[in-house]
Each structure stands twice: as structure tokens, then as C-alpha cells.
Amino acid sequence: MPRTEFIATGFYVPPRVVTNDELAGMMDTSDEWITQRSGIKTRRWVEPGTTCAAVAFEATTTALTRAGMKAADLDCIVFATTTPDHFFPGNGVYLQRMLGIPGIPALDVRDQCSGFIYGLSVADAWIRTGQYRRILLVGAEIQSPGLDLTTAGRDTAVLFGDGAGVAILGPTDADRGVLSTHLYADGQHAEKLWMDGPGVSHVPWISSELIAAGKHRVRMEGREVFKHASTCMPQSVMTALHANGLTPADITLLIPHQANLRISEMVQKQLGLRDDQVVNNIQKYGNTTAASIPIALDEAIADGRLKRGDLLVLTAFGSGFTWASAAIRW
Ligand code: COA
What we know:
Blueprint: E1 3-12, E2 16-19, H1 20-24, H2 31-38, E3 42-45, H3 52-67, E4 76-80, H4 91-99, E5 106-109, H5 115-129, E6 135-141, H6 154-157, E7 163-172, E8 177-185, E9 193-194, H7 208-212, E10 219-220, H8 222-243, E11 253-256, H9 261-271, H10 282-285, H11 292-302, E12 311-318, E13 322-329
Parallel strand pairs: 4-5, 4-6, 11-12
Antiparallel strand pairs: 1-7, 2-3, 6-7, 8-13, 9-10, 12-13
Helix pairs in contact: 3-4, 8-9
Bound molecules: coenzyme A.
């Protein structure tokens, strides 16, 4: 059976840089509070009306150019996002339409911050079994229009940013590629990080009452998220390493989902990793949910931090709760 290799990656973030000081002009917060608690200094926001499919399209264009491929060479799209352009259909078909490649399947993944690794797991299985040979895997988010930019929303509004990252995946017979993926979920914690509406548990699905009650805003029990994220991510990394007969010392690069610099530091400490083994770029982009891992991966490649034969490990944690890991021989 072949393995799944990363043929090319690409990412896109909108040009508008939003500083902590700018947020402090909108709500009761400060650069000091945000930096101390999360590590975030800036994030990117789109201009109003920009769609999630559009930022994914930009990242895809970069990846296709780097791969020396045309959109028509793709035979499947797997699109992970928490912030779809519409209730339905999912974003995969909108991206497919923009790319001008009707007919190929478009799968939408709804696993929030873990979406990219969940999508990778599905794409890897399809590639190894030969069902598809050129899969576009997308993580893209537009968080900014949904943020509550008043003091009431400050616990989450300061954390999230917009952006997209993609990978083009294909089979290889060489001794490299995806070694394993491990996926987890625990719905007991569903309401600890969620957006209640709109949704069919409300009659009607959306109403002025629902909006007045703020049910269309992200709600988060920050400390609970922090506690679970900082234990589940290292556990899932250790599971990935054990499954492949490896140890933390074998890791060239760990890319944790960029939720919070403090969480990434806890993960690093628990795994006993050096600074040069862990990728952090949340300082620049904030938490871009499903997009954070592919954006960080693309930056790490551009910085020359991954060479052929290196061991790359990904791990994520997010709403659901869901969490996941992947081990990749580069
Ligand atoms: N600016 C200033 N003060 C803020 C604030 C902000 N942006 N957000 C919250 N506060 C205040 C709170 O109101 C609270 O005030 P009080 O003590 O007067 O009640 C105080 O800061 C402490 O709030 P708390 O929520 O206990 O802070 P914390 O130390 O837990 O840090 C998070 C908050 C959100 C940074 C932290 O819990 C966290 O990072 N959690 C994980 C979040 C995450 O990663 N989410 C995405 C997962 S995919």
C-alpha cells in the first residue's frame, strides 16, 4: 500500500493586521493581559464580506503553483472549517466552483480546531486505498465577523483570527509520508466551547430573541478548555509516537494547534521538547481554528525547518471536545 505524502502546501492571511491595542480601543482589555494569557500580539481580519471559500481559494492557488499542478489535476476536496459561508451547502462545493472543477467530490469536515487532522485522516485512508490520488485538504476560517467586540465578548474576541492553509496530498511508494493518525472526541464537554445558534434545536432556527440572548456568539469555559487541551494534546502525541516505535527525542518538529501560547508551552514541557522542536506562530495570527496547523506547517517549510526524512508530528484540540494527532515522515 502506498503512503500519503504532502506534495505542496500554501496559506493565505488577509493583509489587515489587528493589534492588541486596537482591540483595547473597542473593549476593556489590554496588550499586557492578552500577551500574558495567550501570547497573541496581532491577528488578521478580512474585509467585511470576504468569504471563507475565498481565503481558501487564495491558499489553494499558491499550493497549486508550487506543485506545478492545475486545479483540474485535483480529484477530491476535503474542507475543514468551523465558520462555513452558509448553513448549507458546505464550503467544499463553493471552493470547487471557484476552482472550476465540477464533478469531483467535496467533503466538509466539522471538527473545529481538530478539523485539519480529522480531514488528513480521511484523506490518508482514501489515498492509501487508491480511491483518490490528488486530494486538496483545506483548513480555513473567517472568525472576525462573528466576534463580540464589546467587553462582554472579550474572553474570546481577543483570541481568534482569520486565515486559510491547504495541503495537496498524494500517494508515494517512497519510505515517507503519513505514518499514523489518531482521532478522539468526548461530547460530554460539547457546551464548554460552542456556539448555540442558529440551529435546529431552536424553533425557529434563528430569531431576534436568539440573537438578543447572544446565542450566536462563541461561548467558552476558558479554564476547562485550557486544562483538557494541555493534557489531551501531549497524550495524543505519545500515542502517535508509541504506535510508530518512536520517542519525543525523535521529533524534528511538533506543530500544535495554535490555541494559546501557554497551552503550547505546557505541551512542550510535558513532552520534554526543546524550543527548536516546536512551532509557534500564534503571536502573529491568533487562533485560526482549522487553519492554524496548515498555516504553521507552510511557514515552517518556508523557514527551512523541515527536511526530507524529518519526523513531523501534528496535534490539535478544540470544541467538541475533539482532539487528534498525526505522525508524518517528511
Ligand atoms: N482582557 C482583560 N480581562 C479579561 C479578558 C480580556 N480579553 N478576558 C477575560 N478577562 C478577565 C475575566 O473577566 C476575569 O476577570 P475577573 O477576575 O474580574 O472575573 C479575569 O480576566 C480572569 O479570567 P479567566 O477566564 O479566569 O482567565 P484565564 O486565566 O483563564 O485566561 C483564557 C483566559 C481564555 C486566556 C484562558 O482560559 C485560555 O487560554 N483558555 C483556553 C482558550 C482556548 O485555547 N480556546 C480555544 C481552544 S481551541
